[in-house]
Input
Amino acid sequence: PNSHCRCAHKFCINDSPFKYYRKIGLFHSTDAEVSTRRKTFAEVQTERLEQAERTILIKCPPKINEKKLLQYLSSHGKINSHFFFENRGIHALIEFSEKNSIASLQDVIGIPSATEHHVVPFKSRLFIFTLKNPVGQAAAETPIHLSPQSHIPVKDLIQKLCGAESISSQMYTLLNEYQLTEENIKLRFLACSLVRDFARAYFPDSVVKPFGSSVNTFGKLGCDVDMFLDFHKTGKHTTKMKKGPFEMEYQMKRLPSERLATQKILSVIGDCLDNFGPGCVSVQKILNARCPLVKFSHQPTGFQCDLSVSNSIAIKSSELLYIYGCLDSRVRALVFSIRCWARIHGLTNSVPGAWITNFSLTMMIMFFLQKRSPPIIPTLDQLRELADVLLCDFFEYFGNFDFRKNSINLRKGKEVNKPESSPLYIWNPFEQDLNISKNVNQPQLEKFVALARESAWILQKEDKTLRMVNKEPWGLAALLIPFGKSNPNKIKNRMKGIGSETIKSLLDSLKLSNVNNLQKTVGK
Ligand code: GTP
Ligand code: MG
Output
């Protein structure tokens, strides 16, 4: 694992019930955009936040020469990516490949000359680019591509949907039109990163992270940015010190409740944004709410923002929804369609009130998907179990599979009687009379079964903690060491113990006793 990964695991995945979801390959690739969403929630967050720290936003004149702007900026360092968008004028988001390029740029940037106003000298990553000779320079400009930051109007959407082939393709059309774009996500993380610059004036270790629909895969273009202040690094230092032969801790202000601390912190940061934040307007401190927050409008990015203080339940909810959203492409298509339907019919509303929230509605949809037969998404308890159990179950399943009698049929999703005597029979799902494993001979199949049994045995029997303490390979690692090497007789012995004959007779006797029990019950 790289350094991001370690950091991500430390703060999020270890505490979450989904800690193995990547290992078991829970994310299958059915979605075109899966490459960005296959990573764990924490990995995506860390990566995007780091990206945002290397990013600046520039307000540009209406006509601008893209090439010249990039050329100018490149003198401060390599540019990784950039895009333009319209939001009360043209803006350019520029992502440098190194963070220090921004410092180099900031060194040469001027402070606005204040004639009518007095400026607050806070140096942010928001800049204004002007042309010294606008008329002469603008003549040579070519139109620039503007990346859309809002979805198409409903009437245009309806027209588009009517041209689709099926209800299912209508749902995917809606999803494509409404979902957050790569550019919009970058802008959201930049907004958090800019707020973090303020928070760091007071709390140098703090981070501002997005949660809710900006990151749970269910956000639509135009939705608010929910962000929270996280002080996790402060916590990390405390744990470190406690390991030594003595204890040392910070002297910190003590308050009667966590809520009061949250309110005080948010109040100060809210004032800070209000007084010094470029483009932060309509700052509202809602400190007496169940979950205290500061609401503000961030003009440079165009987002309505809700800032609160780290709330582990909300983060876990975002991660759970993220997992559900990545599991099956139908989940997001359904959520977007239902949310859109609810919004249009006034069931949901962007202002708080007695109506169903998008969050509640999404939970209702997840419940519905869990209750399908077969379920489209697992329950939270199953998810927790799936992560640990799937690997072992696989080996157990095929270790006990009756290959003599049964074949594997993916079209029907069940075992069916073998149509001929090949040792392993797997129906070709598209050419039903063909066996795709016709080449496999009996010894190879037996080897597979023996190894599957041995692996199931290791996973079930091993004492993980003991192995970890002894620094021995455990779990999957233990399975990846050739079994013959550690103990050449092991496989043979195990085969003797639970040979296929033994298993078969055991199964037969179980079936028999079931029949007997059934007869007894019916008899009663
Ligand atoms: P949008 O309507 O697109 O903003 O959806 P959202 O999921 O971002 O909802 P919202 O902005 O209202 O809330 C942000 C996050 O706060 C949600 O995703 C939840 O994680 C959490 N949240 C909101 N309302 C509740 C609630 O009533 N109970 C709990 N436990 N969490 C909530
Ligand atoms: Mg939200």
